[in-house]
Design a protein that fits this description.
Keywords: DNA-binding, Repressor, Transcription, Transcription regulation
Helix content: 55-70%
Pfam family, one: TetR_C_1
Strand content: under 5%
InterPro entries: Homeodomain-like_sf, HTH-type_TetR-like_transc_reg, HTH_TetR, Repressor_TetR_C, Tet_transcr_reg_TetR, Tet_transcr_reg_TetR-rel_C_sf
Protein name: TetR/AcrR family transcriptional regulator
CATH class of the largest domain: Mainly Alpha
Shape: flat
Radius of gyration: 21 Å
CATH architecture of the largest domain: Orthogonal Bundle
């Protein structure tokens, strides 16, 4: 077996207490995933990188999937929802939340698929959901309709981040887009050359929010 040629990972500073914490483990796991990708992650590698017995993880998380839930919660915490414009119009609140969530996820492209494939059930996430629905309810949108709106916005944002992350991680190498001047250089290829990978996000977000405004009384 050959040694892993990947560069060393800078993990968060380990707590001074004799046992690691739940938060430290999630942050360390995210650092490893950022550096090496989700497929190369293992509890053993986490323990080796952090200098502790991998079995220590199971004192805080039931299994690896449970740990990944903790990583998703760590990503959500990075959005820093408390500093969103809660006192402004709900449209601005929703826009800023989506933009901040997208930017957070794209800082961790290797972890986007992890975030996209599990619900975030942390108290902070639940509290944010309640606050969002309250804002929309106060604007005249029923709680059920408000939940549909927030789900649409979240799925659009996470799906966009996933698409961009996959491309940035190497999917663009498989592109067969014809080059300018070639016989098969068509209108689609020309339009692709005139746009950026992620410059349609705000266009779509604006269109969605304008449509949702019709649901407010």
């Amino acid at each position: 077996m050959t040694a892993d040629p990947s560069p060393p990972v800078r993990l968060p500073e380990q707590p001074t207490r004799p046992t690691v914490t739940r938060e430290y483990l999630a942050a360390a796991a995210l650092a490893l995933i950022d550096a090496h990708g989700l497929r190369k992650f293992s509890m053993r590698k986490l323990g080796t990188a952090g200098g502790f017995d991998p079995m220590a993880v199971y004192r805080h998380y039931a299994d690896q999937e449970d740990l990944f839930d903790g990583v998703a919660e760590m990503l959500f915490a990075e959005v820093d929802v408390d500093t969103l414009p809660w006192d402004g119009p709900w449209q601005q609140l929703a826009r800023d939340y989506c933009l901040r969530l997208r930017d957070t996820l794209l800082r961790h492209p290797n972890a986007v698929s992890l975030f996209a494939t599990r619900p975030v059930r942390s108290p902070a996430s639940i509290d944010t959901g309640v606050r969002m629905l309250t804002e929309l309810r106060d604007a005249g949108i029923s709680p059920a309709e408000a939940l549909r709106i927030t789900r649409c916005l979240r799925e659009f944002t996470v799906g966009h981040a996933l698409s961009v992350a996959v491309t940035k991680l190497g999917a663009d190498r498989r592109s067969r887009k014809p080059q300018p001047g070639s016989p098969d250089y068509n209108l689609l290829a020309e339009a692709a050359d005139a746009t950026a990978l992620d410059d349609h996000f705000e266009t779509g977000l604006t269109a969605m929010l304008r449509g949702f405004e019709q649901l407010a009384r």
